[in-house]
Amino acid sequence: MPVTTNVALGVGGGIAAYKAAELARALMERGFSVQVLMTRSAEEFVRPLTFAALTGRKVITNLFSASSAEDTLASAIEHIRVAQENQILVIAPATADLMAKLAHGLADDFLTTTYLAFTGPVVLAPAMNTNMWNHPATQENLRVLRARGHVIVEPDEGILACGMVGPGRLAEPEIIAQAVANVALGAANRTSAKQDLEGETVLITAGPTQEPLDPVRYLSNRSSGKMGYALAEAAVARGARVILVSGPVALDAPRGVELILVRTAVEMRKAVMDHLEEATVIVKAAAVADYHRSNPPQQKVKKTATRLSLELDPTPDILAEAGRKKGDRLLVGFAAETENLIEEARRKLESKNCDMVVANLVSQQGIGFESDENEVTLVLRTGETIPIQRASKSAISHRIFDQMIKLRLALHSST
Ligand code: CTP
């Protein structure tokens, strides 16, 4: 890290608050400058002095706690200063109450107002009783915070202060500090990333399609959309205009993309063809259903005692059509295979006139479909195949764009 990264460490009110002191130390050992913010209830568990002694800085405790009018004004804008001066916000322990406030944008103390004013990456390390952690309200808040792009350092399982055994114990401070370090590295890479897609319009498809069988049922697949959304985020970070055509997914659109929501393969085809002209790059990460029911009945299909056969028709092959119409646009297809990865990918590349096919084996555990990670091989029109080791979908996205830029140069110089 060339310059010191400032980290705001928000401490929530839980038994685990004392571990935040170890976290402050672990962060400082990694070269971060740490500003501690405590909620009122955190002060019930640990004294601000502990953190002040460790970090050598005044600990910020409560909004509107100042005694004079001048102090009140200063503290009323201090959360903005803290939000601007720090590059990462980490909250540990993030209690159930804090997570609920963050998820819903409530801002009634220093930490929560700082959170709302903060635009950088957020790391949350939850800690609470197992039942509170498992409660649908907490899980729903967790989903919202995760979808917002925050890094969640999951609690450990073990014996909790309340005597229960299960998930809820704050992750080890070293693990949380490492998560913060990873985020700092990612942010540094992004800010130093060249704006090498400036001037490009990248049209990306993501997620599954849903093909209705009747008014209440549909055919679909396990695609989560994470790969396509990561590609969209990476392209925006590198300066592209991004049009994201997305099937139904449980993700929030990355900042700065133009989102077009579709449901069926037919709708996706229309959205892609409507925007093909404007695009300079087309990336087809969507898992489009290959078959649909052409004229689904208007009424729900009733159960009978006999066997039911479904007659399905092929959906339009959007990638193949884009391949026919692409001109000198770069076209990137995806190939999810269970065997003969490279041969199948090359066959798709040729038959659909792609410039690159991103191939992955979907039979591997822990990567691919619903996962945050992937392992792929890039099969290029130049004849090269480039294996990319298991990595986050964000890192893979950047590798795809790196290769795409090289490929454009190679194709350009050979014409
Ligand atoms: N694709 C598409 N339109 C379809 C089906 C697939 O545009 N109707 C695109 C996907 O977005 C992906 C690529 O085609 O980029 C490969 O999808 P895949 O399902 O692996 O390929 P298929 O063409 O269906 O080939 P096969 O069934 O032979 O594996």
Question: Which helices and strands occur, and which strands form pairs?
Answer:
Layout: E1 6-11, H1 19-29, E2 33-38, H2 42-45, H3 48-55, H4 69-85, E3 88-94, H5 96-104, H6 110-117, E4 122-126, H7 130-134, H8 136-147, E5 151-152, E6 156-159, E7 165-169, H9 173-192, E8 201-206, E9 211-212, E10 218-219, H10 226-237, E11 241-246, E12 258-261, H11 265-276, E13 281-284, E14 291-292, E15 313-314, H12 318-325, E16 330-337, H13 341-351, E17 356-361, E18 373-380, E19 385-392, H14 393-413
Helix pairs in contact: 1-3, 1-9, 4-6, 5-8, 10-14
Cytidine-5'-triphosphate is lined by residues 205, 265, 284, 286, 288, 290, 315, 317-319, 333-336, 348.
Short précis:
By secondary structure, the chain is an alpha/beta fold. Helix content is 38%, strand content 22%. It folds into 2 domains: 6-193, Flavin prenyltransferase-like (Rossmann fold); 201-295 and 308-413, CoaB-like (Rossmann fold, 3-Layer(aba) Sandwich).
